């Protein structure tokens, strides 16, 4: 049991369902030792509210652990958390959880970081610019480019652009960006998922992939030349395909992953196929990071109605990835 990978799980927004779903990890059958980052008192209070009888103890690297016990790396809340009610004063706490887990990752104490959901809005309301874990952890680890990919329902959908206003998407999409995104996606599918020759289908940006230039020029000017260049390097990348019919079985059976051009081109399909079971993965980082496929669900905090299946899937995926890939 002691040879199992140790996984850092950040419990996320304290007013949301993050603490609730982390409590389920105590009883879970998981392929690793789980260390939850959060406020111990918050976790104890939430367990009491949910009627869960769980032993919550501080994490010690050389300490004994066993199923039924939740090991916690403690960080204090700034102010007491109320289920369902965001408080701007706890934004720094949420980021501190990520920072502490990241330090442990850097010190090789943990094999992977798995994150419960945070609330982007309240962090920004606190005066800290924050667009998501993906961008935050990229900056934290001084990684110039990362790729968001969600996996679920037999699909892997990566995004060329992530958290930005829709009106900025077309201007952000350059040949340089697309080349970097596809190169990272290809490499991480090989190294972190063990796919020797990954097959990637690329969506167009415009309706009907631009209709030969009559409905937009990004396909002809940017996407096709990049795909051609990467094909010359031996990569099995094809497209651009009209996004409306790309997610059909006859297309997907030829693919290991799909690259969508923007957040809501790819993620609704993935979440329709597997919401609650999917996993969000950040590719390109110098460590393994996975997350749940859902948000803070403030309406469900402390009600017992939140499912933790996506968190379990995120941990299982992180452990599988750690078996394929070791950091330098
Ligand atoms: N990994 C992350 O940190 C992450 C992911 C997605 C969204 N978010 C953030 O979460 C906040 C709220 O986002 P939202 O309202 O768009 O999405 P949400 O996923 O929180 O909620 C959407 C709907 O799904 C339900 N739901 C969500 N998770 C559930 C679960 N585990 N079990 C049962 N039902 C569940 C909610 O009750 C709600 O009805 C936003 O700030 C968003 O940016 C964070
Ligand atoms: N785009 C993600 C989703 O819709 O599930 C979510 O916002 C989380 O993103 P980060 O992992 O960057 O926080």
TrEMBL record:
Any GO BP: pyridoxine biosynthetic process
Catalytic reaction list: 4-(phosphooxy)-L-threonine + NAD(+) = 3-amino-2-oxopropyl phosphate + CO2 + NADH
Gene Ontology cellular component annotations, sorted alphabetically: cytoplasm
Compartments, as annotated in UniProt: Cytoplasm
rRNA-binding keyword on record: no
Enzyme class, first EC level, given as a word: oxidoreductase
Binding site for a divalent metal cation: 163, 208, 263
GO MF annotations, alphabetized: 4-hydroxythreonine-4-phosphate dehydrogenase activity; cobalt ion binding; magnesium ion binding; NAD binding; zinc ion binding
Pathway assigned to this chain's UniProt record: Cofactor biosynthesis; pyridoxine 5'-phosphate biosynthesis; pyridoxine 5'-phosphate from D-erythrose 4-phosphate: step 4/5
Cofactor note: Binds 1 divalent metal cation per subunit. Can use ions such as Zn(2+), Mg(2+) or Co(2+).
SUBUNIT field: Homodimer.
Role according to the record: Catalyzes the NAD(P)-dependent oxidation of 4-(phosphooxy)-L-threonine (HTP) into 2-amino-3-oxo-4-(phosphooxy)butyric acid which spontaneously decarboxylates to form 3-amino-2-oxopropyl phosphate (AHAP).
Protein name per UniProt: 4-hydroxythreonine-4-phosphate dehydrogenase
Lineage: Bacteria, Pseudomonadati, Pseudomonadota, Betaproteobacteria, Neisseriales
Gene assigned in the entry: pdxA
